[in-house]
């Protein structure tokens, strides 16, 4: 009779699993589960029952899926500029506008002149340090892009002469 009193009741086990017991009562239940094999079996049983009851039934699961799909449709619509295709179209339009108006050629020529002045300044500084007078025919050396262009042109001339001047 005392042994029946020592075992944990079903209500206590449910409250323990749902974390609804006070800390003192919780410690008592944990000790009983560790010491009593029958209470351990009950704990395993009730723990699996609680886990199974937390799994939605098929009707409930279907309703939850339908609800999530419906709320997904109600999401805020994207602004047209956030769409990747729209971003590509805008970038292409800006590029065509710049090419059509000649703005790119203006920018590239200004960058080229800036590069030339920077190279000229470096050459003058170097010549001042070394004490070499400036060459009057060519005040500054060609830029890298000019040299690459010259090499490509000479290469194309060589190919042209090989192919067509047999």
From TrEMBL:
Keywords annotated in UniProt: Membrane, Transmembrane, Transmembrane helix
Spans through the membrane: 85-107
Region span, Disordered: 120-146
Superkingdom assignment: Bacteria
Protein name: Zf-HC2 domain-containing protein
């Amino acid at each position: 009779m005392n042994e029946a009193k020592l075992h944990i009741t079903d209500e206590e086990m449910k409250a323990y699993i749902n974390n609804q017991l006070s800390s003192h009562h919780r410690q008592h239940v944990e000790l009983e589960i560790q010491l009593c094999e029958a209470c351990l079996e009950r704990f395993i049983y009730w723990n699996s029952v609680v886990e199974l009851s937390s799994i939605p039934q098929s009707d409930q699961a279907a309703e939850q899926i339908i609800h999530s799909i419906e709320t997904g449709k109600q999401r805020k619509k994207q602004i047209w500029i956030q769409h990747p295709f729209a971003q590509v179209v805008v970038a292409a339009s800006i590029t065509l506008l710049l090419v059509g108006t000649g703005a790119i050629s203006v920018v590239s020529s200004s960058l080229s002149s800036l590069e030339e002045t920077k190279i000229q300044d470096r050459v003058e500084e170097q010549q001042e340090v070394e004490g070499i007078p400036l060459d009057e025919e060519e005040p500054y050396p060609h830029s890298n892009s000019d040299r690459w262009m010259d090499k490509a042109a000479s290469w194309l001339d060589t190919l042209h002469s090989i192919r067509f001047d047999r």
